[in-house]
Specification:
CATH architecture: 3-Layer(aba) Sandwich
Structural class: alpha/beta
Largest sheet: 9 strands, mixed
CATH class: Alpha Beta
Number of strands: 11
CATH topology: Rossmann fold
Order of helices and strands: EEHEEEEEHEEHEHEHH
Radius of gyration: 18 Å
Length: 268
């Protein structure tokens, strides 16, 4: 695994965890899955287990408040004080740049998940549709197990995905974990306007937060009603201001090397 550098921050093994549930949210359309997991990290004040640096991540350093960091994937954990259900949370700064890279990092993360004795993975993402005239967001499920599809369809607020391809780590990690280690996987997708495919700076906070509340409801996570509409608006405004600042900064730079952008529409 010479393509990877694992930086471990704390010791963590399967014997220290109680029925760990893994939740994944990688960058993608409207960053629905990534924002959801980022919020879970904050809600549970999750501790960092490790970072993974991969040589197929975008070739550039991330600057935030003048601090430099390399693009990376992160695994964090939360230990339930009641010892009922611990959480393993996984996200990343970017998707890998090539199809092979996406496969390699997904396979590597699936291996790390298995080492922590995870039995179930939940991945979160977006389901792009033509603009929905209604404010209500629909949710979709696909899974490695027919029993979960049947179970969640009974609730009436989730629909199944009949056909399609989920390209990227959000879909590959659960399927590789199932194929290699027998770990069960569920992918939940929240509707978002398909114009988000062409707008890489757009984050659909409303869809992301409603998706959070959905999994909170079904997996006994204390996150329901954590976000008021006022807070959603404040976060949206903050993200928009940061986006504009970044765009203005980029206009003043003339980099010697141009790296072609990866089409974000590949990632659900």
């Amino acid at each position: 695994m010479h393509n990877f550098r694992l930086i471990q921050f704390t010791d963590l093994n399967s014997e220290q965890l109680h029925h760990p549930l893994c939740i994944i949210g990688m960058p993608g359309i409207a960053d629905i899955g990534k924002f959801a997991v980022d919020q879970l990290i904050g809600i549970f004040q999750a501790q960092k287990y490790c970072e993974i640096i991969f040589n197929d991540y975008p070739a550039g350093a991330i600057v935030d408040e003048s601090l430099l960091s390399t693009p990376k994937a992160e695994i964090l954990f939360y230990k339930d004080p009641k010892k009922a259900q611990d959480l393993i949370l996984i996200t990343a700064d970017a998707q890998a740049m090539s199809p092979r890279g996406i496969y390699e990092i997904s396979d590597y993360l699936a291996t790390l998940i298995n080492e922590l004795n995870v039995k179930k993975i939940i991945a979160l993402g977006a389901y792009p549709i033509k603009q929905n005239p209604n404010s209500e967001i629909n949710f979709y499920i696909t899974s490695t197990e027919q029993k979960y599809i049947d179970e969640f369809l009974l609730h009436g607020d989730i629909q199944k995905v009949n056909k399609g391809v989920i390209i990227g780590s959000n879909g590959l990690i659960p399927t590789l974990a199932k194929a290699r280690f027998g770990i069960e996987g569920i992918v939940f997708l929240a509707e978002t306007d398909n114009s988000a495919i062409l707008n890489e700076s757009y984050t659909d906070l409303q869809a992301s937060i409603q998706l959070l509340e959905l999994i909170g409801k079904y997996f006994n996570l204390p996150i329901k009603n954590t976000f008021s509409q006022k807070k959603i608006t404040e976060i949206s405004q903050d993200l928009e201001e940061k986006r504009k600042e970044l765009e203005n900064d980029l206009k003043t730079l003339q980099p010697p090397l141009t790296v072609p952008d990866m089409d974000k529409s590949l990632y659900i």
